[in-house]
Amino acid sequence: MDRRKFLKNSALASSLFFVPNFVKAFESVASERLGYKRLVIVQLAGGNDGLNTIIPHNNDLYYNARPKLAITKDIIKLNDDLGFHPSLSPLRALFDNGELSIINNVGYPNPVRSHFRSMDIWQTASGSDEYLQSGWLGRYLDQHGKQPYNAIEIDEQLSLAMKGEHFNGIATNDFRVLYNSAKDPYFKNVLSHYNDAHLSEHNLGYLYQTMIEAKSSANYIFEHTDVKTSQETYPQNAFAKQLKNVAQFINSDLDTKVFYASLGGFDTHANQNNKQTKLLSQYAGSVAAFVNDLKRNDTFKDTLILTFSEFGRRVKQNAANGTDHGAANNVFVIGKGLKQAGFYNDLASLNDLDTNGDLKYNVDFRSVYATILSKWMDVSVEEIIPSQQKQLNFI
Amino acid sequence: MALKELQHLYWRAGFGIHPETMHALPKRRNDVVEQLFADSKSSTPLQLDLSFMEGVTIKKIKDNPEFAKDIRDKSRKKLRDLNYAWIHQLAQPKELLREKMTLFWANHFVCKSNNVVFAQQFNNTLRVHALGDFKAFVKAISKEAAMLKYLNGNQNRKAKPNENFARELMELFTLGEGHYSETAIKESARAFTGYNHDFEGNFNFKNKQHDEGLKTFFGKTGNFSGDDIVDIILENKQCAVFISDKIYRYFVNPKPNKKHIQAMAEVFFKDYNIENLMRFVFLSDWFYDESNIGSKIKSPIEYLVGLTNTVPVTFEKERDLIKIQKLLGQTLLDPPNVAGWKGDKAWIDANTIMVRLKLPSVILNNAVIASGEHDEFKKKFMKKHKGKLPFKTQPNWTAFLENFEAVETKDLQDYMLQGTINKGTSDYLKTLRKVSKQAYCVQLMSLPEYQMC
């Protein structure tokens, strides 16, 4: 246990109140700046077909279940059993460098096959029979956040994942618009007159407080973001733009621990192949550019990228050359110094499917979260992940 | 009734009130409240033209994937229409209190359906029972096609019970967490086996799938039906307490007051009549306590409907209505999950507060909030968007001026804001020049105080 942790955890913590301010200030600078770890979440919305992403190219069961849909050409073979979809070629270097860990068969007990509900489960880290109204990253903010900009989502509105019980992150598609909108002279006048006496506990006090935080977050992001830090060429698509934004924030050293980006359209019930080829290529091309961008600025070593989808898809293809909603799926973890790069575990048996004909999970997604929280973010998992989860070994 | 009390009542029983309507109301509290109930005796259902479903059968859908897709697309479009129709009904209600109650119940009996026929029918069931007998209400909900689908009641069979509905029935709809056991869930799920619906959305009880065996539930044993289970649950006073608590936090104050909630539960437990419960609330002196006035953060729908109640607005593209609901964090017919919207402080984050503060000026006044200063935002924004605003609207200022004719501009805040204004803000408002009633209206709507009701 390091000194700071010891001080924080020990019964002596209260004596910190007597430590001169400059010592405390020094401590916080030291711990926040040295090895400032950041987490980037990438959500593939709609349910990405994991089996055509990481392909069991040596498995007859796979080809039999998908006579028209199985990928047969240009598979990027990573070992004797598994290979990348051709669109993932930009990620090949990461795999070879030990900067990508693929965790197979991630899911949860009694999987739900509704997009909305399953996304809800992933975002709140709940079980399939419980309903939580705060997200796992939001609860992280409840414990460790100080300002909304500690967690930024690149979107117009905030996902449930980023909403805590009493603290939220901030969403922005374009930080300049956010800044200009918060800068309205009328708001400035209102706030300069605002008198916060006796209001902080009251709902109205909360509104003013949030307005002040929104304004200061908008200012902070605008003033501290140096767009010139990002010189990498990104592919031309909206998802790449999101990641480029994230890279600008990271490379400008914003005090932001969590970023959230999302790519949608994976709900491929019909004519899957064209659609998925395009989406995976957008994903892989953008992520590869993003990683290069971070590497160039020496920020990759302190960034971890987690990619997930709300569920995988049925093993057997359907009549419309697509796949229906399934269950367990793979998760990608990208970062420097992974403990177990490459394949974290084997693909679950295609011979032993659940009653719906879907892959069975053997890694609970909440244990992936728990591992990231404790081994990467260096925080206690309790209070954030409601169920007891074992730690994994990928970082 | 004092101006403040009347406005408070109308914000909670509806979406605010303007001076013109106020003058036409009776003077005594009792009469005003009784008129609210009298006006809500009838019920006006939402009725979209759903003729695209005529002649559609399960077989046709199964046999023809193209046809099925076409029907799904049409249904999705109609769901948006249903959303608009509901908003319009809230904005121009024939039965004000009934509509407000319907909105409340939609976040109690939370349900979502992609089938527009089921969704509309469910919505109208909420409306019919909104002020009626709670017992009949719960039973009707348990038989709704949308709910049977949403909580997997249609998969609940004798051989393989599905407990989803039974669990939520007790946890979210009647008793609250901690007031039932896992055994109670298992036993009651058996009583609901065989519940199903047909393609048109009618309730369809499948005898063969119903478990006729003995069930032991809350200390009673018998061959219980689903309706019996509802009766037994409601014998527990906890149900009256649970519902009273929820109504109190929605209609009175997000901070619960045990004494008042207990008094409500006593009234409700007598006959589970919702109208009697609401009458008790609206006639109680404590309802009009200073501490309750302006204590609640408007939900996005209350905010939006209230705003158009003050200044009627037409959106050139109806789809913008959905966009705005999304930005504000509440899209009707699209709840986050069966627990519904959390409400209160959860409505507000750094994004939604900025949207709320900026929206009135955007939809009413080309994004301008008068401040006597040069507006850099407006200039840059208009340049970037080539003079286009995100929403094209037509505000009806004439209606506003008519409705507020009797009010002097300098007094407008007394009619538009509920509760106390922050001292500093109030001082600032006094310094404003108030050149026009419209401009001052937009200024008031662009305040944190306007978010309260």
What can you tell me about this protein's structure?
The complex is a heterodimer of chains A (395) and B (453). Chain A starts with a helix and ends in a 19-residue tail after the last helix. In chain A, 35% of the residues lie in helices and 13% in strands. By secondary structure, chain A is α/β, with parallel strands linked by helices. In chain A, helix 10 packs parallel to helix 11. In chain A, a hairpin with a 4-residue loop joins strand 3 and strand 4. Chain A folds into two domains: 34 residues, no CATH class; 289 residues, Alkaline Phosphatase, subunit A. Chain B is mainly alpha-helical and 453 residues long. The longest helix of chain B has 27 residues. Chain B is globular, with a radius of gyration of 24 Å. Chain B folds into three domains: 94 residues, no CATH class; 93 residues, no CATH class; 152 residues, no CATH class. The two termini of chain B are 18 Å apart. Chains A and B meet through helix 5, strand 7, helix 7, helix 8 and helix 9 of A and helix 18, helix 19 and helix 22 of B.
Give keywords.
heterodimer, A: about 400 residues, alpha/beta, Alkaline Phosphatase, subunit A, 2 domains, nine-stranded mixed beta sheet, three-stranded antiparallel beta sheet, 12 strands, about 15% strand, globular, disordered N terminus, B: about 450 residues, mainly alpha, two-stranded antiparallel sheet, 23 helices, 6 strands
